[in-house]
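Field reference: sequence -> structure
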Amino acid sequence: MTRYLLFAMVMVLSFSSSLFGGLSEEIQIACSMNVSQMGMLMSLGQIGSLISFLLLPSIAKRLGSYTLLIVGILASAFALLGMSLSRSFLLFAVFFLVSALGGYLYGTSNVLVLIASDPLHKRTSIPLMHLTFSVGSILSGLYITYLKQHIWYEGYLTMAVWYVGMAVLFMATRPAQAALWEKPQYRTLRSGFSLLGNPQFLRYLIFLVLANAVEYCTTVYPLLLLSQRLGAGAKQIGLAISILYGGSTAARLLAIPLLKTGFVAHRILIALSGVCIVGLTGFVLAPSFLPAYISLFFIGLGIGAMNPVSQILEISVWSNDLLQLANLRSMGSTLGRMILPMLLGISITLFGLASVFVVLALALGAGAFTLYTARLKPTPC
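Structure field:
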C-alpha cells in the first residue's frame, strides 16, 4: 500500500511543482514582483532547505523516514495555503521558505521509504517514481492553462487540500515496520556528513548541484522567455509545459531498460547533459514557437532522467548510508537552486533574459566534465 501511495503523492507533487513556473506572470502581477525578484525568490526559498539540511541528522534519529515524509507533506500543505493568500513579495517569500523546508523533508525521505517498502525492486521503482512525476507534469500543463484563464491562486489552494488528504492517507496506512526504516544513530553531528570527506563523492556532488540547479531553472525561465519574446499566451504556456515534461517522460522511459540492461549510470548522465545543452542552445536561438517547442523537448529529454539515474548511481557506489546520501543530495540541490538563480538575476540585469540559457548550458557542461573526472566504479545493487 505504501508504494502506491508514494506514486500517488508524486502525481500530486507534479501538479504543485508546475504552479510557480506556469503562473509566474500572474504571481508577479498579484504580488508586485519583477523578473529579478522572481530569481531572488527562488534563491531565498532555499534557506528553509538549508535549515532542514543542518537539522536532519538529529531529527532523523528521533522520527525516522516515514514520519519525516508525513511532516514534510503537512508543512508543504501549509505553505501552499499561505501562497494562495499572499498578495505581496514579502509574504509570498515567507511561505516560499516554508515550502522549501517541507519539500526538503519530503524529498529526502520519499525515496528512502520507497526502497524500504520494496527493496527488491529499487532499480525499477526509483525510475518509475520519476516517470510518474513526468506523466503528471505533462497533464499539469492542461491544469496551468485552466488556471491562467480563471483564478491563479485556486491552484495553490486546491493543491493544499490534496496534500492534507495524502498526509491523512499515509498516517492511516502506516506500516507496522515503519519505525525500523532508516533511523540511524549518528554519534556526532559530523558523522552525519562523513561522505563529504570522499573526493570522488565531492566531484559527483558538484555535478549534482549544477544539474539540479539547471533543472530547477528550466521550469521557469523558458516560460518567461516565451512570454516576453514571442508573446505566448495561456495555451502556448500550457503546451510548453507539456512538451518540456514530455521530453522528461521520454527520458525516464528510456532510463528503465538502459539501467536494467547494465548501462553505466555515470555515462548516461554525461550523455543526457549533452542533450540538454543542445536543447538550451536551440531554445535561445529559436525565432518562433515551433523550433522553441522542439528545443524544449530536448531540454526535457536531457534533464528529465538526471535524478533517477543519479539515484541509482548513488546506491550502487555508496550504499552503506542511504539517509546521509539523501540528505547531502537534497542539500546539493538546495545550494545550486540558491546560488544559480541569484547569478541568473545578475545576468538578466546586465545582458537580458536570453543570457540565462548561455549560463545554464555552461553550468551543465562544467558539471558533466567534473562527473567524468570522478571515475566512479558502480557495483551491482
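Note: The mean pLDDT is 85.
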